[in-house]
């Protein structure tokens, strides 16, 4: 079953360093599920279908379960006498889990907006889809870089400043897409309801970039 911890030993037997590694692997697993949910939700928009809705919601249940289990484990572990480095790492992970869970929620929000569109038998204009695709690719790139560097402990591709710069670029792209949407609305190229869904999706994508930067900052501080 997916509803179980794969790496963490709840008996807390073993060295603190090993405990930290186990937590890191479990967090990486959650981040992987979130990344695949976000990408599946965005691909659904681009392909104008919701065929992966069931899979996304199943994953979200696993994400919520694992988040609860990891946070519970960290809370228990913090009552032990731990070296400062491990204690700091676990505290940082506490923050990271909160940020990741919110990214997961936004992935589901993207799916829900697409479901509204599909139910209403509406689809976005080619220009709107292209704007979504570009921001989706930037977000996905950001998630992958942070997953690699901050969760898997690989060599960093982006510095914190570069991450913040990417976050700002995503926000700017979102603002420009909203401005373009207003022009399309005035020209009658898209409906009010389409516009609402579009703005909600852009907001979620911008929030995801913001949460990813927060993850990076929490890991940096740990």
Q: If you had to describe this structure to a student in words, what would you say it looks like?
A:
The protein has 222 residues and is mainly α. Helix content is 79%, strand content 0%. It has six helices and no strands.
Write the SSE topology:
Elements: H1 16-47, H2 53-77, H3 84-119, H4 126-151, H5 160-186, H6 192-221
Helix pairs in contact: 1-2, 1-3, 1-4, 2-3, 3-6, 4-5, 4-6, 5-6
Low-confidence stretches: none
Strand proportion: under 5%
Number of strands: 0
Oligomeric state of the chains present here: single chain
- Our measurement of the CA-to-CA distance between the termini, rounded to an integer number of angstroms, reads 32 Å
C-alpha Rg (nearest Å): 19 Å
- Topology order in helix (H) and strand (E) letters: HHHHHH
Helix percentage: over 70%
Mean pLDDT: 92
Shape: elongated
Major sheet, described briefly?
none
What class would the helix/strand composition place it in?
mainly alpha
Number of helices, counting only DSSP H or I runs of 4 residues or more: 6
């Amino acid at each position: 079953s997916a509803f179980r911890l794969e790496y963490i030993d709840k008996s807390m037997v073993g060295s603190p360093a090993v405990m930290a590694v186990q937590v890191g692997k479990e967090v990486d697993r959650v981040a992987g599920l979130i990344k695949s949910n976000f990408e599946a939700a965005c691909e659904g928009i681009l392909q104008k279908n919701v065929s992966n809705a069931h899979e996304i919601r199943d994953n979200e249940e696993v994400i919520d379960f694992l988040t609860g289990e990891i946070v519970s484990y960290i809370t228990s572990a913090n009552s032990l006498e731990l070296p400062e480095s491990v204690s700091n790492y676990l505290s940082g992970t506490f923050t990271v889990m909160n940020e990741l869970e919110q990214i997961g929620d936004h992935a589901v929000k993207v799916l829900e907006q697409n479901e509204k569109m599909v139910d209403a038998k509406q689809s976005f204009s080619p220009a709107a889809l292209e704007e979504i695709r570009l921001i989706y690719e930037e977000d996905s790139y950001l998630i992958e870089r942070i997953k690699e560097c901050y969760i898997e402990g690989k060599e960093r591709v982006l510095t914190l400043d570069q991450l913040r710069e990417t976050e700002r670029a995503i926000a700017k792209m979102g603002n420009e897409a909203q401005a373009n949407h207003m022009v399309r609305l005035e020209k009658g190229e898209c409906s009010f309801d389409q516009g609402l869904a579009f703005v909600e999706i852009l907001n979620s994508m911008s929030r995801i970039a913001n949460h990813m930067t927060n993850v990076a900052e929490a890991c940096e501080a740990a």
